[in-house]
Amino acid sequence: MNKELRIDSLRAEFPVLETCVYLNSNSTGALPRGVEQVLGRYWATMRTWRDDAWGGWLDELDGYLRVLAEFLGAPAGTVVTDTNLTTLLGRLATCFDFRGERNRVVTTDREFPTVPFLWQGFAKYGAERVMADFDTDAVLSAIDERTLLVCVAHGSYTTGAVLDLERIVAQAHRMGALVIADAFQTVGVVPLNLRALEVDFVLGGAGKWLCGAHTAFLYARDDLLPTLRPAATGWFAGRDPLTFRPAEDWAPDARRLAGGTPIPLTAMMSRVGLDLLAAVGVPAIRAHSLRCTDRIMARAVDAGIPVRTPSAPDQRGGVVCLCFPGDEMVKKRLAERGMVCSWREGLRVAPHIYNTVDEVDAFMDALVAERKALRG
Known about the structure:
By secondary structure, the protein is of the alpha/beta class. It is built from twelve helices and twelve strands. Strands 2-8-7-6-5-3-4 form a seven-stranded mixed beta sheet, sandwiched between helices. A hairpin with a 3-residue loop joins β11 (342-343) and β12. It is globular.
């Protein structure tokens, strides 16, 4: 970790930590206090509105995209943002023709609900969804000569397991298919160097491990950009949108995957947390995350609590999923005690760089006590 950003000083940047033990970053990441200044600046501009404010706001949006690309190990101009991942995935899907024999989309049985629902909708255009188990070998086996896209989550939101994207990308490319990776559950806590990985598309968002709010991103491999012509588009995807003339061609970079009028505020808010994390560095974040999750898993095993998350570090992200009778009720009781986690088919515990091992122990003490009380 950067010596100037020791964990105690970093913790001071997140006001929610003053109110509770917050182990919920895989659901809603903590926002740093610097966001309040962003909101104040934005309101000051809105209060005395002038159209030329857009120049400054768009500069800030571009700045966020630049820093985000650096954080992801991606070239400049390969990342675009929008309000949510669903919007971006749907727009990307309209770039492809599913009317030929190569029309299959490989997904898994552990995708966030957006993914199967969206590809179900694209069946009307010829897309054929092929579902594999959330397992790297199962995904590899499902890819064949008819596969057009492999659209899989990097990390499961219900188990905490991660897929081996490197192997999936290699196999998909051998078969002539492209890979869309949903990294919302991993970006910011698991190292991802998109340039080295050679993955075709990556989706994610700021609202979890990136300590931001209400903005998602789409990365597209730079050599693929000229081939992408989305049917679902908007004026801001044109080459020169600020001329306010009808677009004659798409933007040359990832902005061709933008839609209508952007919302700079959410990027401005999210830049605060991204800068803090970038100063720490993902390797340090990952090392701290593994220390904390190792502790959670060890405590759970000692207490006889079933762990759904793989124990091997390279097979899991930043969340530990625990599953036992009454786990949803225990989650609610923990919240009443100021111990915040989340529940999705099991209790999910997600420490981040701003948490301490002492907090993890305090949380596990409370969890064991509440489980015992529930069992009578």
